[in-house]
Each structure stands twice: as C-alpha cells, then as structure tokens.
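Feature request disguised as a bug report, sorry. It would help if multi-protein outputs had a clear separator. Right now it looks like this:
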Amino acid sequence: MFALRYTFMHSLKTLQSRTFSVGRTCSGSVDMKGRSLLTLKDFNPGEIRHILRVSADLKHRIKHEGQYLPLLQGKSIAMIFEKRSTRTRMSTETGFALLGGHPCFLTPQDIHLGVNESIKDTARVLSSMTDIVLARVYNHSTLEQLVKEASVPIINGLSDLYHPIQILADLLTLQEHYGSLKGLTVSWIGDGNNVLHSFMMSLAKLGVNLRIATPKGYEPDDDVTQEALHLSKQFGTELHLFSDPLEAARGSNVLVTDTWISMGQEDEKKRRLKDFHGYQITMQTGSVAAPDWTFLHCLPRKPEEVDDEVFYSPRSLVFPEAENRKWTIMGLIVCILTDYSPQIPKLKL
C-alpha cells in the first residue's frame, strides 16, 4: 500500500521542477466542454478520471506551488441554494473566485425561482447573464427543468436523488490516500440516500467494489439499484446489499456513512433513530474491515452515525475529504468551461 501511495505522490513531486503555462489544449484529451452534470450515471470512466486528474493538477499547482491560474477570468456562476450548505457553498464560491471568476450566491429569499417566476423563465434569464449554474435543490426534477430550459451548463449541487460533486471529492481523497482506486472495496453503512446513489452510479466504472448495509425500508432506489447491478456486471466489480452493518464492513477498505436524518426529514427523527439502531460506525465495525481501512463522511456529522473514536482517529479522512470538495468542484467547472489540459501525469488506475 505504501508503494501505491508513493507512486501517486512521486508523480506530484516530479512536477515541482517544471515551469507551467496557465494551461494548454492537447489533441486526444477528454472533451467535456459545455456538459451539464446531474448524475455521474451520464459520465464514462475516462471522463470521471479526467475530472479527478484536473482536480489533482489544480490542487498541486495552486495549493502546493502557489501559482495563480485565472482560468475563469471574465466568467460568472449562479449558485442557487434551496437548501442550506457549508461545504457546497464554500467550495464553489471560493474555488470559482480563486480561478478568477465571479460567483453569485442565490437563495429562495434572493430570487423568484418557482414562486413568482417559473423555472423556465429563471433558467433563460440566468443563461443570459452567467456562464454556468450550480443548483442545490430539494427535487431532482427542478434540475431536469433547468437543463431543459437553460443554454448554459447546469451542475447538481445536491438533489433528493443524487449528490455527484460529493462523490468526486470522495474519489480524489481515496486516490490520494491509496494511490489507486481500482480494486478497493467501499462499504456504505446507513441510509439509502442521494450520496449512496451517486456512489452506485460511479464506483463500478472505476473498478471499485461496493457493499451496502441499510435497515429494512431504507434501501436505495430500485431503479438506481438495477442500474448499479448492470454497471457492476459490465465493469467486473462486486455489488452486495445487506441489512447487517458488520457483514457489509467485512474485508472493506473504506467505511462510509452519512446523516440518517436529511433536511426535510426532521419530523421522522425519533422513528429513524430507532430504525438505525446498531448502525453507528465504531472501532468494532472496523475490526472486521481490511487492515488498511479508512473512514469517510460528507458532513455535517452526528455522533449517533459514527463515534468520536473513529471520527477523530488517524483512519478518518473526513477533513481532507471536505477540502477536496473545493478542488473537485474547481476541476469539474474547469473541464466544463475551458479547454484546459492538466499537466500532472495520468493518475494510476
């Protein structure tokens, strides 16, 4: 495992002696310019890897080498937030500004989306004034309407069905830690929610196995599960669903959970806490995992989901994971709005 991590870090360090231009276009590079991202279901393995590579490249050049890359100079982004946020807002707002662009933060109190103005009209107005829209919404159908009516790319900042930008951050974090994604096993222990759905639409494409434990009645969406089973078969990975958290954790490299009570489900708290009894991730959960196991959580975290011993342990990658939300949203937007080609070597598969 040390060799894998060394290979990735050595690739980064070899760049330190080079002089960089802001970016260049290379023939044969992955072209995602103008694309929207509502779900990673619509992106192939090469495109996902390219986003991760661009993200790692920007992180190295800006954070570690102190370079200024005004790749988004003269561009603006409309950030629609129906739901409150810490990481999504900060990663997008600071990341877009760091690349020379202008972020515009919009809440239901700021605009008329779906109230005094239709989603159709809002999409057309924002398209005339900004270069891209990120929307964090309750209903996935809102995003689908925005895509239909807008003439600029739309990014899903979270919906009830998917949370793709979170998974990009998770993947970069695991790539950095393990040196390679292929062959890893991720165990999801918790609710069958939007974050899990996004794992299910992406992990198999990168050669990652997935083991899922959810209480009865909290399983992932049936259509998403069927698609995930198809992807697992297509890419030769394993997908297993359990109700026993320890069985799901057995032999896994990565233990992952999320909130059991999402925004809008507060009235279900008492019942949900009862139904998820026994699902808290502890060192006992990790005792059946692989020797190199790590822990992820997209935050905010509550103690009933994972205890302090795991959450603040050296095995926890939650804070690098949170930071990588910034670098991966930057990488994604650069892929969508520019012809930038990363200069970091390709990531080890």
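(second protein starts here, but nothing in the output says so)
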Amino acid sequence: MSASAHLEHAAELVAQACRIVALTGAGFSRPSGIPDFRSPDGLWAKSDPSEVASLRSFRRNPDHFYAWLNGLLDPILTAQPNPAHLALAELEAAGKLNAIVTQNIDGLHQQAGSRRVFELHGHLRSATCPDCDRQVPTKPLLPNIRSGRAPRCNCGGTFKPDVVLFDEILPPGIFWLAHQAIEQCDLLIVAGTALEVAPVCDLPLFATRRGTKVIIVNFEPTYLDPMASVILRADVASAIPALARAALYEAVGS
C-alpha cells in the first residue's frame, strides 16, 4: 500500500471517529526545535538519563541537574507550536479530538489552542520545594538557573521543576484521567513516540484490548505496530496536518 493510500485510510478512520485521543511524545515537538531523547542524535545519546534526569541525581547534586536543564531551557521556552500541534487543536475545535495525552513538558499543545491536555510527565510552568511543598512559578527562578545555581526555597530546600524525573511515579490523578480517556476513545492516534517509557507505553493497550483502532505516526517501529490499523512513517509536522485536512474535508463532504 502506498503512502497516499495509508494516509487516505487514516483520514477515513478519523472522519468516522467521534472520540479520538492523541498520545504524543518527544518526536511531536522535534519540528519545533526541541530535541528528542532516543533518536541517534537525541539527548540520551549525549547523556546518561540516570545521571542527569533522575530524582536520585537531583537530590545528590541539584546544581548538576540544573546545568543539564539549562541547556534545554532556551529550546523549550522559545519554541512555538508546529503544524502538528495546530492540526490537533483544529481537530479538537471541530469536535473530533476528545483529549491529548502527552509525555512532553513544553506546553506547546496548550499554546496551539488545545484545551484537554493530560501532561503525564509534568511541565516547566512551576517548581516545588520537596522540603516544604511550596510551589512557585518557574519564571522568577530563571536568573538563578541561567547563572548555574540551583534555585533555593526560603526554607533552605531546593526547588524542583514540576516535571517527572526518572525514579518518580507519574501523578496518579493525571494518569487515571489519561487512562480513562484512552479506554473510552474510539480511535487512538499515537504520534512522535517510540513507546519505550513505562508506564505510558502500556496505555495504548487499554484501547487495543477493546478493539479500538490505532493510527501510528512515527519514523521508527514500535511494539504496537502489529496492533495498529494504519502506520504512517512520516514527519508529524506534515502527516498530522495532512491527516486533519483530509479527515475534516471528508467529514464535511459526507
């Protein structure tokens, strides 16, 4: 089957569905200039995640953690939604997309206009002191971070960004809502994720076990490929908008 035939089939599935959920990963924001993690030139090709992005390493050496994070700040804080983010927001506005479940911490789905977004790995909008639970906006902490100093709380603790590090559990409430959304959807779009990080990688199984159709948009194979209805090996920034345009045109014309 040709690439255009795959796209046409995927568009038909989107046009027929009423409760779509999109599960997105780091590859979804790569066209916005934010590096992903697991590609050959991704972040984990340069750094050991257990040494720079784990709760254990944060507690042991928060300055080292913030030195690593500082290199990501500008790409994340200056990034703009790419066409894939905008296309999902368009599908939501049209009543086709019910929710976005994302592993990304960049907030680009919300910037694009999406409203129901479950951020499984947290976000950079705020930080919390683990010693006293004081939560503050991240913006006032940026001067400290950019100067290479871990931001300190008045109690003497170190503020930690409200992102989920290795060794941490996902926010139970957010994970439950994401699980419910995926379990109840009638089409799941998995885009820009290799599905290698637990427990997020298991979420699509709650859809496939019910016979829900799955569209995968990802350059590399995933464990879910044998269970997918359609696989698009394409850049999300071109495939998702094309899918949305085709699906919305078909829905209007039907």
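Even a blank line would do. Unrelated, but nice: The chain has a mean pLDDT of 91.
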